[in-house]
Design goal:
8% strand, alpha/beta, Serine Threonine Protein Phosphatase 5, Tetratricopeptide repeat, Rossmann fold, 10 strands, 27 helices, 4-stranded parallel beta sheet
C-alpha cells in the first residue's frame, strides 16, 4: 500500500465531509505506519468531531510525543480539551501551539475562544487581534474579538467587530446573533430585533428565540415575547431560563395562572433555581396566596441582587421560637418604601414577649422612633447591643405565618417626630393642598417604567381651589421647573421625618409607586397611587383599587394601557375638582 497516497485520499474524503471514508483511510495508514503523525493528527480531528474527546486527546498526545516541535497536534489537543470542558488544559495546548508557530491564526483564534469562555477577556482580545493581523479575512477572529469586547463591557466596540465578521461571512448566523446581544446590552432593542431575526433566518435555535423574546419584552411587546418564548420551549423543552422569563412576562400581562404554570414547569427541571422561585413568589403574592408566596420569597437570599442585604450575625435566625425575655434584631433590607410598609410588623414580635431592636437606613431613623412597641431604632453600623435572635424585616410575614387578614391595619402607625421640620406656612394656606411625586429611586430596575414626568401633571395646575407642592427628591426634582406655580418643598426635606411633617401640612398626595406613598399611607393621609402597566408592585395585588395595607382614603389608580399617564391624571383631576368644590 502506498501510505502517502492513502493519506492523501483520506484528506480528500475529509475535505468533502465524507468522514467515514476519511477515517477508514487514516486507519489503514496507521496499520501500515503506526507512527505516522499526519494520520494521528487527522484522526484526532475526526474523533473530536464525532464527540470522542478523550480519543481525540489521546491521538493528539501520541502525535506530540512523536513530533513535539509541530504545532498542529497541540491545536488538535487544545480542541479536544476545549470540547471536553478541560479549558485550562486547552489554554496550555493552544499557547504551546502559538509558541511553536507564531503565524498560525487558527491557534490564536482557538486560544481566544477558550479565554473568552474562562472570562479572561483582555487576554482573549489580544489573541484575537493576533489572528486578525495574520489573516484579516478570518471572520471567526473578528467574532472572537467582538466577544472579548462584549465581555469587557464595551458593547459598542463589540458591534463593530461583529459587523466586520458579517461583512466577511454574511451567511454566518453567529455574528448576526452576537450583534443583537450587544445592541440589547445597550438598550437598543429595536435594532437588536432585526439582528436576531436575520440570524434566525440563517439558522434557527432556542437561544436565539429566547433573546428575541427578551428584547420584545423590553419593548413592551409582551404578546409577541410570549410567542417567541414558547417557540424556544418547543425547540428545547428543558430551557429553564425560557420558563422563567415566560412566567415573568405572563405575570406582567396579569395572566397569573399561566405565569405560575410556566414557573412551576421550570422548577420541575431546576428545583434550586432562585430566579424561578423569586418570580413564583411575586405571582403568588399578587394572587393573594400568602401561605406559598412568602415561603417562596425567602429564595431572594440566593439571588445576587439581594447579596448586599445578606449579613451574618453570631446569633440564630428567628424562625418562630419563644421570645419571652429575649431581644431580637430586625435587620433592614431593600427600599425605603418596603421598610415603611413592613416596619408595622416589628411590634408583633414585642407582643410575643420580645424586645425589638429595629434597624433602618439613616433616612428613616428619626421617623421610626415614632413606631410604638420597639425598644430601640438603630442604623447599620450602630452599636446594636446584645441580642438573641435576628430576622430580616421582609421575612417577618413568613416567619409570623401572616395571612392577608392578619395585616396590622391600625392607621396611623407612624407620626411626625417633634424635631422634624415645620411646615406651618404650608398648613396655613387656603385651598386643597396636594403633594406631587413623579419618580421613584433610580436603583430599582423598573424605575423608568413606574415613573412619569413632572410635565404629565400639568393638566392639574389650572384646577380652581387647588394648590400643588412638589415632594420629589433626587435628580428628578429639577423637573419641577416644568410645573409653573408648583411650590418646591424638596429643599426643606432632609429625611423622611421632614417629609412626614410636609405631608401632615397637606391634604392629599398624588404619586407614582414609590416610598412616599407608603409614608403617607402610614400617616393616614389621603393618597392616590398612579400605577404603571405592567406594575411590579406585587403587594398591590391584581385589579384592586384598595389595599389591605392602608385602609382608609388610599386608592390605587391603574393604567389601562402602558404609559397612559394622561388617563390617570385625568381621573385625578376629576376627583380634585370635586373635592375642591365641596
Amino acid at each position: 500500500m502506498d501510505v502517502q497516497a492513502m493519506l492523501d485520499q483520506g484528506r480528500e474524503h475529509h475535505r468533502a465531509e465524507r468522514y467515514g471514508d476519511a477515517g477508514r483511510c487514516y486507519k489503514a495508514v496507521l496499520e501500515a505506519d503506526p507512527d505516522n503523525v499526519d494520520a494521528l493528527n487527522l484522526m484526532s480531528a475526526l474523533a473530536q468531531m464525532v464527540g470522542d474527546n478523550q480519543m481525540a486527546a489521546n491521538l493528539a498526545m501520541q502525535a506530540i510525543r512523536l513530533q513535539p516541535d509541530w504545532h498542529a497536534p497541540y491545536v488538535a489537543l487544545g480542541n479536544a480539551c476545549h470540547a471536553g470542558g478541560r479549558l485550562d488544559m486547552a489554554v496550555d495546548a493552544f499557547q504551546k501551539a502559538v509558541t511553536l508557530c507564531p503565524d498560525a491564526p487558527e491557534a490564536y483564534l482557538n486560544l481566544a475562544n477558550v479565554l473568552n469562555e474562562l472570562g479572561r477577556h483582555a487576554e482573549a482580545a489580544k489573541m484575537a487581534v493576533e489572528a486578525v493581523v495574520i489573516n484579516g479575512s478570518m471572520a471567526e477572529a473578528h467574532n472572537a474579538f467582538g466577544n472579548a469586547l462584549a465581555g469587557m463591557n464595551s458593547p459598542e466596540e463589540a458591534v463593530e467587530a461583529y459587523q466586520k465578521a458579517v461583512y466577511l461571512r454574511p451567511d454566518w448566523d453567529v455574528p448576526w446573533f452576537n450583534i443583537g446581544v450587544a445592541l440589547a446590552a445597550q438598550g437598543k432593542h429595536v435594532e437588536a430585533l432585526a439582528s436576531y431575526r436575520h440570524s434566525i433566518g440563517l439558522l434557527d435555535s432556542p437561544v436565539k428565540r429566547y433573546n428575541l423574546a427578551n428584547s420584545l419584552a423590553a419593548e413592551g411587546r409582551l404578546a409577541e415575547a410570549v410567542t417567541e418564548y414558547r417557540i424556544a420551549l418547543a425547540q428545547a423543552p428543558d430551557y429553564v431560563d425560557a420558563y422563567n422569563n415566560l412566567g415573568a412576562t405572563l405575570k406582567d400581562m396579569e395572566r397569573l395562572d399561566e405565569a405560575e404554570a410556566s414557573l412551576q414547569s421550570g422548577l420541575q427541571r431546576a428545583p434550586d433555581c432562585a430566579d424561578l422561585h423569586w418570580n413564583l413568589s411575586l405571582v403568588q403574592l399578587m394572587k393573594g396566596d400568602w401561605a406559598n408566596g412568602w415561603r417562596e420569597y425567602e429564595w431572594r437570599w440566593k439571588m445576587p441582587t439581594f447579596a448586599p442585604f445578606l449579613r451574618e450575625f453570631p446569633v440564630p435566625q428567628w424562625r418562630g421560637e419563644d421570645l419571652t425575655g429575649k431581644t431580637i434584631l430586625v435587620t433592614a433590607e431593600q427600599g425605603f418604601g418596603d421598610a415603611i410598609e413592613f416596619c408595622r410588623l416589628a411590634p408583633l414580635l414585642t407582643a410575643r414577649g420580645g424586645k425589638v431592636v429595629l434597624e433602618c437606613r439613616k433616612g428613616l431613623q428619626r421617623l421610626f422612633a415614632s413606631l410604638a412597641g420597639v425598644e430601640r431604632v438603630v442604623a447599620p453600623g450602630d452599636d446594636y447591643g446584645a441580642f438573641d435572635f435576628v430576622v430580616p424585616l421582609m421575612s417577618l410575614p413568613y416567619r409570623l405565618g401572616l395571612t392577608l387578614q392578619d395585616v396590622p391595619a391600625t392607621i396611623p402607625y407612624l407620626s411626625v417626630p417633634t424635631a422634624a421640620a415645620t411646615f406651618a406656612d404650608v398648613a396655613g394656606l387656603d385651598g386643597l393642598k396636594v403633594g406631587l411625586v413623579w419618580a421613584g429611586g433610580a436603583t430599582r430596575r423598573d424605575n423608568a417604567q413606574r415613573s412619569c414626568r413632572a410635565a404629565d401633571f400639568r393638566p392639574l395646575l389650572d384646577l380652581p381651589g387647588c394648590r400643588f407642592f412638589s415632594l420629589q427628591v433626587g435628580p428628578e426634582a429639577a423637573q419641577v421647573a416644568d410645573l409653573p406655580g408648583v411650590v418646591d418643598l424638596a429643599p426643606r426635606l432632609g429625611d423622611f421625618a421632614d417629609t412626614a411633617a410636609a405631608l401632615a401640612a397637606l391634604d392629599m398626595l398624588v404619586s407614582v409607586d414609590t416610598g412616599v406613598v407608603h409614608l403617607a399611607g402610614a400617616l393616614g393621609k389621603p393618597v392616590r397611587v398612579l400605577l404603571s402597566r405592567p406594575s411590579n408592585g406585587f403587594l398591590w395585588m391584581l385589579g384592586r383599587a384598595d389595599s389591605p395595607w392602608y385602609p382608609g382614603d388610599f386608592r390605587l389608580l391603574r393604567q389601562e394601557r402602558a404609559n397612559d399617564w394622561a388617563g390617570l391624571v385625568g381621573r385625578v383631576a376629576a376627583e380634585l375638582q370635586e373635592r375642591a368644590g365641596a
